[in-house]
Write a structure and sequence with these properties.
The relative contact order is 0.08. The radius of gyration is 35 Å and the shape is elongated. The protein has 228 residues and is of the alpha+beta class. The chain starts with a helix and ends with a helix. Helix 5 (152-194) runs antiparallel to helix 6. A hairpin with a 5-residue loop joins strand 3 (110-118) and strand 4. It folds into two domains: 3-150, Beta-Lactamase (2-Layer Sandwich), CATH 3.30.450.20; 157-227, Helix Hairpins. 64% of the residues lie in helices and 18% in strands. It has six helices and five strands.
Length: 228
């Protein structure tokens, strides 16, 4: 009777030791993951012209590399997530925050987000923010490291191309319809003259005119199809 409690006590000790060993191993892995991430952050900060940031989600402490000065001109920076959020365009802020909340909820570690960020002079730049999220053993997001790239010129070029394509479609539509109206009248007139008695020379001229009209009509139809 005296041996049974000692056996239970021994079993409990072994179980506790196993739990502690597992927890220790998990903490060591988390520490190693963080150290690896910190090394990558420091390397990236030195090797890129992008604005690299590191956010401790629990404390709200946020640090930047020199890219925040080079790209946006900010020399006076508050090391908080509130400072970062206050410089995101008001129309984009909820989209950005919702994107990160969704990533946290689904335990996704990588993100690509486009938004507008305010410069020191009050203007905005279009940016691509590529982020890496670190989770703890309970799958809670604890840290984010991001790299912000200025894509303003790319966005301007894309918008300009869209506007140009829109203008081309409008011009093509107007020109094709302005040309098609008189062309339809010419084709109708050719059809009427085709039934009239005329010399072979006139008939040959009408045939060429009819063929040319049909070719032009096909060209207009193709323009409308390509620009619709």
């Amino acid at each position: 009777m005296n041996n049974q409690p000692r056996a239970d006590h021994s079993t409990n000790n072994i179980s506790a030791l196993n739990d502690n060993a597992n927890l220790f191993a998990l903490l060591k892995k988390q520490e190693q993951d963080y150290n690896d991430l910190l090394i990558r952050f420091n390397t990236l900060s030195k090797a890129t012209s992008d604005a690299v940031w590191d956010l401790d989600i629990l404390s709200g402490h946020m640090v930047w590399n020199k890219g925040i000065v080079g790209i946006f001109g900010h020399r006076s920076i508050s090391p908080t997530k509130e400072w970062w959020q206050s410089h995101i365009h008001p129309d984009d802020l909820n989209l950005v925050l919702n994107e990160f909340e969704l990533l946290f909820k689904n335990h996704k570690s990588r993100s690509r987000t486009e938004y507008r960020f305010r410069c020191a002079d009050g203007s905005y730049k279009n940016v691509l923010d590529r982020s890496f999220i670190l989770f703890d053993e309970s799958e809670n997001a604890v840290r984010i490291i991001g790299s912000i790239q200025d894509i303003t010129e790319q966005v301007k070029h894309e918008n300009a191309m869209q506007q140009q394509n829109l203008r081309l479609r409008e011009i093509s539509w107007i020109q094709s319809h302005e040309v098609r109206a008189p062309l339809a009248r010419i084709m109708g007139l050719v059809n009427l003259l085709d039934d009239v008695e005329a010399s072979p020379e006139v008939k040959e001229m009408l045939k060429h005119l009819s063929n040319s009209s049909e070719e032009l009509d096909n060209v207009i139809s193709n323009i409308l199809k390509r620009t619709s």
